[in-house]
């Protein structure tokens, strides 16, 4: 009786050993879909093993592997249901044709929603598009000048005209406050800084026509600027041969925030490359601040302040210009005496009380004032000589 039990146990152990013994197999075949088309790059591998291969563009594969009879051969491809075969069922076969079914997965319901924006006539200008844009005038204005219907006659000026309108027919709003922009564009070199301080901006929108009535009427365009209402401390400092800027923003307590920027620019290096040689001494300063104070959960007080000073001093010496045609080439030399001194100084302040009693009602009371001082002094005498060039 005991011998019979030992014999049975030996048989069981022997069969288990045989089933787990590693053998070498060679298998060829082809992987197709249910319509009989080949599936390229299908995976053929042994489960829990590093051995595997892939099918070629016609779905053919040839695979030599070492496995036990109890191991599993898995054939899979992206978008199809995988198939498994026990190695012991492949014994004696040297060719295998596999047809994989498409793997269709159902997903839950999808909801698509949209929102209608009232400012659909306004084009949004991304901050990253102009932050690193090197321009002698305003960075944002240089992008606006390239838009349809917008033109400018001077690359040194931040002023632009829309659809043939005047330069002073362009509205500028900062946080809902209309900004006064004096016209000082007799020469673009008198300008150094545009009103917009890019460090303080959160969003910019522009419309060359068809804007809403809330911006007014009888104007060519509108530039809607939103200054950032900070939620944490942030600062920027920039320095270069043409000027520099510093910007600070932060919250004080839970009610008060400030966003302030100071800029300085001098374009003397740029102006020295003009045709008229002389001593250029331009200097431009700009200080802006945007303050908010939350009175209650429904009421808020805002203040926007701006101080801008443009000084321009020029002592011309000479100018040489060649013009005409090949047959009639001319040269003009101009010599100057005297100088030019200009100053443009602007002050602006605006106080806004905003009240939101509920989600459907938004009331704003705005009071603003500005003052501008412009002075231009000329004492320049010039004499010129017109010469015919020697064509030989």
Give structural attributes.
single chain, 392 residues, mainly beta, five-stranded mixed beta sheet, 21 strands, 51% strand
How would you portray this structure in words?
The chain has 392 residues and is mainly β. 7% of the residues lie in helices and 51% in strands. The protein has three helices and 21 strands. Strands 15-16-17-18-19-20-21 form a seven-stranded antiparallel β-sheet, with no helix packed on it. Strands 8-13-14-11-12 form a five-stranded mixed β-sheet, with no helix packed on it. Strand 16 and strand 17 form a beta hairpin. It is elongated and about 110 Å long. The termini are far apart. Mean pLDDT is 83; it is low at 13-19.
Low-confidence segments:
13-19
Q: What's the Cα radius of gyration? A: 39 Å
Number of strands: 21
Question: Describe the biggest sheet?
Answer: 7 strands, antiparallel
Strand fraction band? over 45%
**Helicity level, as a percent range?**
under 10%
Order of helices and strands: HEEEEEEEEHEEEEEEEEEHEEEE
Strand order within the widest sheet?
Answer: 15-16-17-18-19-20-21
List the helices and strands and how they pair.
Elements: H1 2-20, E1 23-33, E2 43-46, E3 52-54, E4 60-67, E5 72-76, E6 83-86, E7 95-100, E8 123-124, H2 139-144, E9 150-151, E10 161-162, E11 170-174, E12 177-178, E13 201-207, E14 221-227, E15 234-240, E16 243-252, E17 256-265, H3 268-271, E18 276-294, E19 299-324, E20 329-358, E21 361-388
Parallel strand pairs: 1-7, 11-14
Antiparallel strand pairs: 1-4, 2-3, 2-5, 5-6, 8-13, 9-10, 11-12, 13-14, 15-16, 16-17, 17-18, 18-19, 19-20, 20-21
């Amino acid at each position: 009786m005991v011998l019979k039990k030992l014999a049975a146990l030996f048989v069981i152990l022997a069969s288990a050993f045989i089933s787990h013994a590693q053998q070498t197999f060679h298998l060829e075949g082809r992987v197709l879909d249910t319509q009989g088309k080949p599936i390229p790059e299908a995976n053929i591998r042994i489960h829990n093993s590093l051995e595997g291969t892939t099918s070629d563009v016609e779905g053919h594969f040839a695979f030599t592997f070492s496995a036990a009879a109890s191991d599993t051969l898995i054939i899979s491809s992206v978008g199809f249901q995988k198939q498994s075969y026990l190695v012991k069922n492949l014994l004696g076969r040297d060719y295998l044709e596999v047809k994989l079914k498409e793997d269709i997965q159902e997903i839950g319901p999808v909801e698509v929603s949209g929102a209608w924006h009232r400012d659909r006539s306004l084009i949004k200008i991304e901050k990253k598009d102009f932050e690193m844009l090197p321009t002698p005038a305003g960075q944002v204005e240089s992008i606006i000048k390239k838009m349809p219907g917008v033109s400018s006659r001077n690359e040194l000026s931040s002023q632009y005209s829309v659809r043939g309108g005047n330069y002073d027919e362009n509205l500028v709003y900062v946080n809902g406050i209309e900004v006064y922009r004096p016209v000082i564009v007799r020469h673009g070199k008198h300008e150094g800084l545009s009103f917009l301080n890019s460090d303080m901006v959160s969003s910019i929108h522009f419309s060359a026509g068809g804007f809403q009535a809330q911006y007014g009427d009888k104007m060519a365009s509108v530039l809607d600027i939103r200054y950032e209402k900070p939620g944490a401390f942030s600062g920027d400092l920039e320095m270069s041969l043409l000027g520099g800027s510093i910007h600070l923003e932060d919250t004080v307590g839970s009610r008060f925030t400030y966003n302030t920027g100071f800029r300085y620019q001098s374009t003397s290096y740029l102006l020295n490359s003009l045709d008229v040689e002389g001593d250029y001494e331009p200097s431009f300063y700009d200080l802006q601040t945007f303050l908010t104070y939350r009175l209650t959960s429904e009421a808020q007080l805002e203040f926007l302040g701006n101080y801008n000073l443009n000084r321009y001093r020029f002592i011309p010496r000479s100018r040489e210009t060649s013009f005409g045609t090949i047959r009639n080439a001319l040269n003009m030399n101009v010599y100057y005496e005297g100088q030019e001194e200009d100053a443009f100084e602007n002050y602006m302040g605006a106080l806004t009380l905003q009240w939101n009693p509920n989600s459907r009602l938004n009331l704003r009371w705005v009071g603003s004032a500005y003052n501008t001082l412009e002075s231009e002094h000329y004492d320049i005498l010039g004499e010129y000589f017109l010469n015919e060039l020697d064509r030989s």
